[in-house]
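Hey,
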Amino acid sequence: MRRIRSFNDYCKTAVAFSIIKYLGAAYLVYLGTKALFSKKENLKFTEQQEENESIWTSFSSGVITNVLNPKVALFFISFFPQFINKENIDSVLPFFILGLTYSGLGIIWCFMLAYFSSMFSNKLKKSEKFNVLLNKFSSLIYILMGLKIALTKK
């Protein structure tokens, strides 16, 4: 037998949802204001953080992410067959060649991306002005997200 929910049940659910929504919005505003008024000393990177973050760390993290990503396998399965002749569709060799080509190009691209982004981020980390600006901008985003959540009707 199906239970019919009463109006009181719906009101309780709506009140509980509203409480969670406003608490979450208040927490976002709190995090934003806390970061907005924090001192500059909190923004500096330590030497240990800079040493731990190398090009190879970034590159290996990207490789692991791509290897374990199921969307990559779905891409191969759905996209590659259209580049193989119908006569060779039963053979593994065309898939293997396309996969190696794609992987080789992907490795070169990811290495270049990790190398140049590491160079760029090291320069930005040393810029105190950029760090202050980034902190202020991200804290304003938190505050605006919290206000948007609090002012949303649904």
